[in-house]
Design a protein that fits this description.
The chain is an alpha+beta fold. The chain folds into 2 domains: 114 residues, Rieske [2Fe-2S] iron-sulphur domain (Rieske Iron-sulfur Protein, 3-layer Sandwich); 154 residues, no CATH class. It is 18% helix and 26% strand. A hairpin with a 5-residue loop joins strand 8 and strand 9.
Protein backbone atom coordinates (compact mmCIF):
# COMPACT_ATOMS: atom_id res chain seq x y z
CA UNK A 1 0.00 0.00 0.00
CA UNK A 2 1.30 3.46 -0.90
CA UNK A 3 0.87 6.16 1.73
CA UNK A 4 0.72 9.78 0.72
CA UNK A 5 3.13 12.34 2.12
CA UNK A 6 1.67 15.84 2.35
CA UNK A 7 4.21 18.65 2.40
CA UNK A 8 2.37 21.65 3.82
CA UNK A 9 4.06 24.31 1.71
CA UNK A 10 1.88 27.40 1.95
CA UNK A 11 -1.14 25.45 3.20
CA UNK A 12 -3.21 27.01 5.96
CA UNK A 13 -5.99 25.39 7.93
CA UNK A 14 -7.74 26.00 11.23
CA UNK A 15 -9.92 23.85 13.41
CA UNK A 16 -11.19 24.50 16.92
CA UNK A 17 -12.28 21.79 19.34
CA UNK A 18 -13.82 21.52 22.78
CA UNK A 19 -11.58 21.41 25.86
CA UNK A 20 -13.34 18.19 26.85
CA UNK A 21 -10.90 16.47 24.52
CA UNK A 22 -8.28 17.05 27.24
CA UNK A 23 -10.37 16.97 30.41
CA UNK A 24 -13.17 14.46 29.91
CA UNK A 25 -13.19 11.00 31.45
CA UNK A 26 -15.40 9.90 28.56
CA UNK A 27 -12.74 11.01 26.07
CA UNK A 28 -10.12 9.16 28.10
CA UNK A 29 -12.19 5.97 27.94
CA UNK A 30 -12.70 6.40 24.19
CA UNK A 31 -8.94 6.83 23.70
CA UNK A 32 -8.30 3.62 25.60
CA UNK A 33 -10.48 1.73 23.13
CA UNK A 34 -9.62 3.55 19.91
CA UNK A 35 -5.95 4.46 20.43
CA UNK A 36 -4.13 2.55 23.16
CA UNK A 37 -5.76 -0.77 22.28
CA UNK A 38 -5.60 -0.17 18.55
CA UNK A 39 -2.11 1.22 17.77
CA UNK A 40 1.47 0.05 17.77
CA UNK A 41 3.05 1.61 20.88
CA UNK A 42 6.75 2.21 21.46
CA UNK A 43 7.27 0.21 24.65
CA UNK A 44 11.02 0.62 25.18
CA UNK A 45 14.53 0.14 23.86
CA UNK A 46 15.93 -3.11 22.52
CA UNK A 47 19.10 -2.44 24.54
CA UNK A 48 17.11 -3.21 27.71
CA UNK A 49 16.41 -6.81 26.63
CA UNK A 50 19.68 -7.86 25.04
CA UNK A 51 20.43 -11.00 27.09
CA UNK A 52 18.33 -14.07 27.90
CA UNK A 53 16.36 -13.32 31.05
CA UNK A 54 16.32 -9.56 30.51
CA UNK A 55 12.92 -7.94 30.99
CA UNK A 56 11.24 -4.58 31.41
CA UNK A 57 7.69 -3.43 32.17
CA UNK A 58 5.86 -0.92 29.98
CA UNK A 59 2.95 0.90 31.62
CA UNK A 60 0.33 2.59 29.47
CA UNK A 61 -2.82 3.85 31.17
CA UNK A 62 -4.28 1.06 33.28
CA UNK A 63 -2.29 -1.67 31.53
CA UNK A 64 1.16 -3.07 32.26
CA UNK A 65 3.01 -5.05 29.61
CA UNK A 66 5.92 -7.35 30.49
CA UNK A 67 8.62 -7.61 27.79
CA UNK A 68 11.10 -10.51 28.16
CA UNK A 69 13.79 -12.37 26.23
CA UNK A 70 13.74 -16.13 26.73
CA UNK A 71 16.68 -18.53 26.88
CA UNK A 72 16.43 -19.15 23.13
CA UNK A 73 16.80 -15.43 22.45
CA UNK A 74 13.18 -14.79 21.45
CA UNK A 75 11.36 -11.65 22.57
CA UNK A 76 7.91 -11.89 24.12
CA UNK A 77 5.28 -9.47 25.36
CA UNK A 78 2.57 -10.30 27.92
CA UNK A 79 0.11 -8.59 30.19
CA UNK A 80 1.87 -8.32 33.55
CA UNK A 81 -0.87 -10.26 35.31
CA UNK A 82 -0.81 -13.68 36.96
CA UNK A 83 -3.46 -15.89 35.38
CA UNK A 84 -4.49 -17.35 38.75
CA UNK A 85 -6.08 -14.47 40.69
CA UNK A 86 -5.13 -11.47 38.56
CA UNK A 87 -2.31 -10.32 40.83
CA UNK A 88 0.46 -8.08 39.47
CA UNK A 89 3.15 -10.54 38.42
CA UNK A 90 6.38 -8.49 38.25
CA UNK A 91 6.89 -5.45 40.46
CA UNK A 92 10.32 -4.35 39.19
CA UNK A 93 10.55 -1.96 36.25
CA UNK A 94 13.39 -3.95 34.67
CA UNK A 95 15.93 -6.64 35.46
CA UNK A 96 17.08 -10.15 34.63
CA UNK A 97 15.27 -13.27 35.79
CA UNK A 98 15.29 -17.04 35.33
CA UNK A 99 11.49 -17.07 35.54
CA UNK A 100 8.58 -14.97 36.80
CA UNK A 101 6.96 -15.97 40.10
CA UNK A 102 3.74 -14.41 41.37
CA UNK A 103 4.22 -13.04 44.92
CA UNK A 104 0.68 -14.10 45.92
CA UNK A 105 0.46 -17.87 45.42
CA UNK A 106 3.85 -18.48 43.78
CA UNK A 107 2.57 -19.58 40.40
CA UNK A 108 5.70 -19.57 38.23
CA UNK A 109 6.05 -18.80 34.54
CA UNK A 110 8.87 -19.38 32.07
CA UNK A 111 10.35 -16.41 30.23
CA UNK A 112 8.18 -17.35 27.24
CA UNK A 113 5.03 -17.01 29.36
CA UNK A 114 4.38 -20.72 29.86
CA UNK A 115 2.98 -21.67 33.26
CA UNK A 116 5.51 -24.15 34.63
CA UNK A 117 5.03 -24.30 38.40
CA UNK A 118 1.98 -24.46 40.69
CA UNK A 119 2.40 -25.20 44.42
CA UNK A 120 0.35 -28.17 45.66
CA UNK A 121 -0.74 -28.90 42.11
CA UNK A 122 -2.06 -32.32 43.18
CA UNK A 123 -4.69 -30.60 45.35
CA UNK A 124 -6.43 -29.13 42.28
CA UNK A 125 -9.33 -31.07 40.77
CA UNK A 126 -7.69 -30.54 37.37
CA UNK A 127 -4.07 -29.70 36.58
CA UNK A 128 -4.08 -25.90 36.03
CA UNK A 129 -0.92 -26.07 33.92
CA UNK A 130 -2.50 -25.63 30.51
CA UNK A 131 -2.29 -23.16 27.63
CA UNK A 132 -5.33 -21.25 28.90
CA UNK A 133 -3.36 -20.24 31.99
CA UNK A 134 -0.16 -19.17 30.28
CA UNK A 135 0.50 -15.44 30.38
CA UNK A 136 -1.74 -13.56 27.96
CA UNK A 137 0.45 -12.44 25.03
CA UNK A 138 0.43 -9.20 23.07
CA UNK A 139 1.78 -8.57 19.58
CA UNK A 140 5.43 -7.45 19.58
CA UNK A 141 7.87 -6.23 16.94
CA UNK A 142 11.17 -4.35 16.74
CA UNK A 143 12.18 -1.44 14.51
CA UNK A 144 15.44 0.54 14.53
CA UNK A 145 16.29 -0.19 18.15
CA UNK A 146 12.76 0.27 19.52
CA UNK A 147 10.43 -2.41 20.89
CA UNK A 148 6.79 -1.93 19.91
CA UNK A 149 3.70 -3.69 21.26
CA UNK A 150 0.08 -3.80 20.09
CA UNK A 151 -2.74 -4.67 22.48
CA UNK A 152 -5.36 -5.36 19.83
CA UNK A 153 -6.33 -8.50 17.98
CA UNK A 154 -4.61 -9.26 14.63
CA UNK A 155 -2.88 -5.89 14.19
CA UNK A 156 -1.46 -4.76 10.88
CA UNK A 157 2.33 -5.25 10.52
CA UNK A 158 4.43 -2.65 12.29
CA UNK A 159 6.09 -1.50 9.07
CA UNK A 160 2.66 -0.97 7.51
CA UNK A 161 1.66 1.12 10.52
CA UNK A 162 4.82 3.24 10.24
CA UNK A 163 4.42 3.64 6.48
CA UNK A 164 7.04 5.79 4.72
CA UNK A 165 8.39 7.03 8.05
CA UNK A 166 10.28 3.74 8.47
CA UNK A 167 12.24 4.15 5.24
CA UNK A 168 12.78 7.90 5.71
CA UNK A 169 14.41 7.28 9.10
CA UNK A 170 16.27 4.13 8.07
CA UNK A 171 19.70 5.85 7.84
CA UNK A 172 19.55 6.79 11.53
CA UNK A 173 20.95 3.97 13.66
CA UNK A 174 18.95 4.69 16.81
CA UNK A 175 19.64 1.21 18.17
CA UNK A 176 23.40 1.75 17.93
CA UNK A 177 23.41 4.94 19.99
CA UNK A 178 24.60 5.08 23.61
CA UNK A 179 22.04 5.76 26.33
CA UNK A 180 23.02 8.72 28.52
CA UNK A 181 19.71 9.73 30.12
CA UNK A 182 16.48 7.93 31.02
CA UNK A 183 14.07 9.69 33.34
CA UNK A 184 10.34 9.92 33.95
CA UNK A 185 8.53 12.89 35.46
CA UNK A 186 4.90 13.31 36.49
CA UNK A 187 2.95 16.12 34.82
CA UNK A 188 -0.37 17.61 35.84
CA UNK A 189 -1.77 17.75 32.33
CA UNK A 190 -3.30 15.54 29.68
CA UNK A 191 -0.85 13.52 27.61
CA UNK A 192 -2.00 15.26 24.42
CA UNK A 193 -0.86 18.64 25.77
CA UNK A 194 2.69 17.28 25.68
CA UNK A 195 2.29 15.94 22.15
CA UNK A 196 0.84 19.30 21.07
CA UNK A 197 3.89 21.12 22.38
CA UNK A 198 6.20 18.97 20.30
CA UNK A 199 4.03 19.27 17.19
CA UNK A 200 4.67 22.95 16.46
CA UNK A 201 7.46 25.54 16.39
CA UNK A 202 5.15 28.49 17.07
CA UNK A 203 6.47 28.81 20.63
CA UNK A 204 10.17 28.40 19.88
CA UNK A 205 11.07 32.05 19.16
CA UNK A 206 9.66 33.10 22.53
CA UNK A 207 10.35 30.16 24.84
CA UNK A 208 13.67 29.04 23.32
CA UNK A 209 15.26 32.20 21.87
CA UNK A 210 18.69 30.54 21.95
CA UNK A 211 17.59 28.30 19.07
CA UNK A 212 17.87 31.17 16.61
CA UNK A 213 21.66 30.87 16.99
CA UNK A 214 21.78 27.34 15.54
CA UNK A 215 18.59 26.48 13.59
CA UNK A 216 16.20 28.29 11.25
CA UNK A 217 12.71 27.50 12.53
CA UNK A 218 11.30 30.11 10.16
CA UNK A 219 12.11 27.88 7.16
CA UNK A 220 11.12 24.48 8.51
CA UNK A 221 9.39 21.80 6.44
CA UNK A 222 6.33 20.10 7.94
CA UNK A 223 5.25 16.68 6.74
CA UNK A 224 1.94 14.96 7.45
CA UNK A 225 1.60 11.22 6.93
CA UNK A 226 -1.38 8.93 6.79
CA UNK A 227 -1.87 7.17 10.08
CA UNK A 228 -1.23 10.27 12.19
CA UNK A 229 2.57 10.44 12.01
CA UNK A 230 4.15 13.86 11.43
CA UNK A 231 7.58 15.27 10.71
CA UNK A 232 9.26 18.65 11.13
CA UNK A 233 12.60 19.19 9.39
CA UNK A 234 14.50 22.27 10.60
CA UNK A 235 17.60 23.65 8.83
CA UNK A 236 20.56 23.41 11.21
CA UNK A 237 24.07 24.82 11.29
CA UNK A 238 22.55 28.18 10.44
CA UNK A 239 20.60 31.04 12.02
CA UNK A 240 16.97 32.11 12.02
CA UNK A 241 16.99 34.68 9.25
CA UNK A 242 13.81 36.26 10.59
CA UNK A 243 16.01 37.90 13.22
CA UNK A 244 18.67 38.97 10.73
CA UNK A 245 21.99 37.44 9.77
CA UNK A 246 24.96 38.24 12.05
CA UNK A 247 28.34 39.27 10.67
CA UNK A 248 30.21 36.45 12.40
CA UNK A 249 29.18 32.88 13.30
CA UNK A 250 27.20 32.53 16.50
CA UNK A 251 28.71 30.82 19.52
CA UNK A 252 26.86 27.60 18.72
CA UNK A 253 27.87 27.67 15.06
CA UNK A 254 31.45 28.24 16.19
CA UNK A 255 31.30 25.18 18.42
CA UNK A 256 29.97 23.11 15.53
CA UNK A 257 32.70 24.31 13.19
CA UNK A 258 35.48 23.78 15.73
CA UNK A 259 34.28 20.23 16.45
CA UNK A 260 34.71 19.50 12.74
CA UNK A 261 38.22 21.00 12.54
CA UNK A 262 36.97 24.14 10.78
CA UNK A 263 37.94 27.71 11.76
CA UNK A 264 34.93 29.93 12.58
CA UNK A 265 36.89 33.02 11.51
CA UNK A 266 36.86 31.72 7.94
CA UNK A 267 33.12 32.38 7.90
CA UNK A 268 33.14 36.00 9.04
CA UNK A 269 30.85 37.85 6.67
CA UNK A 270 29.36 34.64 5.27
CA UNK A 271 27.46 33.04 8.11
CA UNK A 272 24.94 31.46 5.76
CA UNK A 273 27.76 29.35 4.27
CA UNK A 274 28.29 27.53 7.57
CA UNK A 275 25.52 24.98 6.95
CA UNK A 276 26.99 23.83 3.63
CA UNK A 277 30.48 23.71 5.10
CA UNK A 278 29.28 21.46 7.92
CA UNK A 279 27.69 19.11 5.41
CA UNK A 280 30.82 18.94 3.24
CA UNK A 281 33.20 18.51 6.17
CA UNK A 282 31.19 15.67 7.68
CA UNK A 283 31.44 13.78 4.42
CA UNK A 284 35.19 14.43 4.35
CA UNK A 285 36.01 13.25 7.87
CA UNK A 286 33.21 10.75 8.50
CA UNK A 287 35.25 7.62 7.80
CA UNK A 288 38.15 8.58 10.07
CA UNK A 289 35.73 9.35 12.90
CA UNK A 290 33.78 6.15 12.43
CA UNK A 291 30.60 7.91 11.41
CA UNK A 292 28.62 6.50 8.44
CA UNK A 293 27.75 9.91 7.03
CA UNK A 294 27.57 8.43 3.53
CA UNK A 295 24.11 7.07 4.43
CA UNK A 296 22.63 10.54 4.82
CA UNK A 297 21.49 13.28 2.48
CA UNK A 298 23.24 16.63 2.76
CA UNK A 299 20.27 18.15 4.58
CA UNK A 300 20.27 15.32 7.10
CA UNK A 301 23.94 15.95 7.91
CA UNK A 302 23.21 19.44 9.23
CA UNK A 303 19.54 19.62 10.08
CA UNK A 304 17.49 18.78 13.17
CA UNK A 305 14.54 16.55 12.41
CA UNK A 306 11.64 15.76 14.68
CA UNK A 307 9.22 12.97 13.82
CA UNK A 308 6.15 12.16 15.91
CA UNK A 309 5.11 8.52 15.73
CA UNK A 310 1.40 8.22 16.40
CA UNK A 311 0.13 8.28 19.01
CA UNK A 312 2.66 9.40 21.63
CA UNK A 313 6.32 8.97 20.64
CA UNK A 314 8.40 12.02 19.68
CA UNK A 315 11.86 11.53 18.15
CA UNK A 316 14.10 14.61 17.84
CA UNK A 317 17.36 13.69 16.16
CA UNK A 318 20.46 14.30 14.07
CA UNK A 319 22.88 11.65 12.74
CA UNK A 320 24.76 11.85 16.05
CA UNK A 321 22.01 11.82 18.67
CA UNK A 322 18.35 11.15 19.37
CA UNK A 323 16.08 12.60 22.05
CA UNK A 324 13.03 10.43 22.76
CA UNK A 325 10.01 12.09 24.36
CA UNK A 326 7.00 9.99 25.32
CA UNK A 327 3.96 11.08 27.35
CA UNK A 328 1.85 8.24 28.73
CA UNK A 329 -1.72 8.62 29.98
CA UNK A 330 -2.61 8.20 33.63
CA UNK A 331 -4.61 5.12 34.57
CA UNK A 332 -7.69 7.06 35.75
CA UNK A 333 -7.18 10.85 35.61
CA UNK A 334 -7.21 12.65 32.23
CA UNK A 335 -5.50 15.64 33.87
CA UNK A 336 -2.31 13.71 34.63
CA UNK A 337 0.35 11.87 32.65
CA UNK A 338 3.83 10.40 32.90
CA UNK A 339 6.50 11.94 30.67
CA UNK A 340 9.53 9.87 29.65
CA UNK A 341 12.70 11.62 28.46
CA UNK A 342 15.34 9.34 26.96
CA UNK A 343 18.53 10.28 25.13
Amino acid sequence: MTLTIIETDGVRSHQSFNKARYLSADTMAAESRAIWSNSWLMAGLIRDVQKPGDFFVFEIGSEQILISRDQQGQLHGFYNVCQHRGNLLVGDEHGNAAHFRCPYHAWTYDLDGTLKGVPLVDKFAEDPRCADRNLKPVALDVWNGFVFVHLGEQPEPLLTFLGPVASILEPYDFGGMTLVEDQTVHLDCNWKAVVDNFSELYHVDYLHPQHKRMVDCHNDLVRLFEGGHTGVEVPGGTVNQKFGVPEVPTDIQSQQLTSLDLDPKDFNGRVLDVRGAIQAQKRLIGAERGMPYERFTSDQLSDVWQYNLFPNTVLSFTPEHCWILRPRPHATDPNQCEFDKIS
